[in-house]
Amino acid sequence: MDNEWMGRYRPLVAALVRHVNVISKLNEEFCIQIGDGVFIDRPSWQIIEYFVEHSDNTYNMIDISTKLGIPQSSFSKKVKQLKEYGFLDRFIAEGNKKEIFIRPTEKAIHFYRQNTSDHVSKHFLPFFEKLDRFSDEEIAVMTEAIENLTDNCKAKEQPKPPKMKYIKLD
Description:
two-stranded antiparallel sheet, alpha+beta
């Protein structure tokens, strides 16, 4: 394969690869103390953040786990743990007891606000300053491109190897 397949996108792809690798390493090291000897990891933080940032919206748990890229089983376990810590409450809609909705508690909102300002000023404000050069339409196109890349990179179900026939050796 031609080693120039990235063309003019090489610096962007390199930046995305580096970002993913740095964030992956940070995810291994990330934890925030929420109580005496109790810590939460980055996916739990992202779940709190999602619910606080979208507290006026109604999404079901499957939609949110998909939006965050957290496997459904892990998402459910983390939501259950965050509920036990007093950060989330579960609700059902009147007349529909099967669909469960999650809302952040006041404790979660306070905790989120208390722990975001340093993170925002250190990481996101410089990032947003660079993006200020783009129009809203250009940012929408870049967002769509990144979402498309992410969707195309998701692990695909691998075909199962054929069953082996065993032959007894003498």
